[in-house]
Amino acid sequence: MKTIVIAGGTDGIGKALAATRLGRGDTVVVIGRDEAKGAAFLASAAAVGAGARAVFVPADLSLLSENERVLETVRTRFPAVDTLVFCARHYRTRRTETAEGLEENFALFYLSRYVLGHGLADALTAAGRPVVVNVAGPGADLGVVRWDDLELRRGYHGGAALGQGGKLNDLLGVAFAGRYGDRGIRYVLIHPGVTATSFSGEYDEHTLKQITTMQLYAKPVELALPPILAAIDTPPAEALSAFVEGHRIEVEDDSFDRGAARRLEKVTEGILLEHGSRTGAPRGN
């Protein structure tokens, strides 16, 4: 049986994945900010006799300090982690900064995944066939990245923030696979397609109408799970891979540029250092 950590596991795809893996006998660690939803996860696990294998870690993953606390908790309890899944993100029509002074989408959708991935690399290495599954939006052009304004201080738009976040996660995958691929860790980027989740976010009236229309045609959450489950059960042979609605896409083209990945990693390490984070990529590599 596996130990699976799901960041953003109290709603939508993460919630369905947690229930599915508990049903298959795995230990599932769910991270989320909503303690009521966390309690519901634990109660549902107990109701099916899986209470001993269900763990909820409350945390606001948009805060670096909370990510550090999560790492301490998970590493203490679980020296080996088979699978790390990233699902958490939250749309904001208006630009919002966290209490730590970071733009929220950038902090939650990208920085949290960076910190948790590097912070659990040793625990992943200790597992048999470790895999990181990053549910994002792989394959966009590098042109969506605003290198001189990663936190979108100028001309903010919620859609642009999520679009850039997806590309930053592509580059994160490139750099992560380059660092840890020889340890056996596989990094899988997955876009499941438009899925009927709660579409977590705060929307203006115009955007809310668009979301309501999308929900009418979105696939059920259960249909978004197969490529994620496949990556967990049988990680690809390659250190880095990417899938859009179950179809593999190329990760050797210019949109997954290694130079851009190294550039982003360097910028990210500077941001983490500035904000006092203790976790990041290993120095000197």
From TrEMBL:
InterPro entries on file: NAD(P)-bd_dom_sf, SDR_fam, Sec_Metab_Biosynth_Oxidored
Gene3D superfamilies for this protein: NAD(P)-binding Rossmann-like Domain
Entry superkingdom: Bacteria
SUPFAM superfamilies in alphabetical order: NAD(P)-binding Rossmann-fold domains
Keywords per UniProt: Oxidoreductase
Keyword Repressor: no
UniProt protein name: SDR family NAD(P)-dependent oxidoreductase
